[in-house]
């Protein structure tokens, strides 16, 4: 994914692969941070149960691609996760055998339709169609693959809550506050469908504030990255007025 992002950025900036891009440097740091945060046993298990990552189409996309059962780190974390989910030795052994059948295309998974559909249809649909012979694994896969892969959507959603339920409005009921958060979030999503979201002075206003209007706003992206882990930072844009206001930091709080 990082390579695809790099190609898109360098194509937009008209740069060659060996040239330095300050924008890509910041984006790369954000992607690496996200990866490190998501590199957990549960994520490794979900990755292992996605049939797409065993398909020839995905494996042939890049030379570094390999099926999850051949990756030592992923296999180790997957085993740890399965042991925690199935503490009973017999169940753990049974689900391990089911995974061996799935990853190795054995028994019922030798079906040509099952193999060809691994990289073509939605993972949940694939498990519903072809996973009946491995009930433990099928049930687990449907639970994991039906979950969002990132919590950033929830973090951004509830970072709005302190704005809605502030000191001045602390008398409103929790349900009322939740309703306002719901409305605010949906208005944000609707605004992304307007033409002005991609062009003009309010371009991508909810990424890092009204000051974000081009690929050159690297500093804003850094603050936007902080907002994923520190929701209170989302509404704060730090500005430096230079030598004229030396010693005085101007902090502008923007409520979107």
UniProtKB/TrEMBL annotation:
Pfam families: Dimer_Tnp_hAT. GO terms for molecular function: protein dimerization activity. Residues 109-187 form the HAT C-terminal dimerisation domain. This is Dimer_Tnp_hAT domain-containing protein. It comes from Cephalotus follicularis.
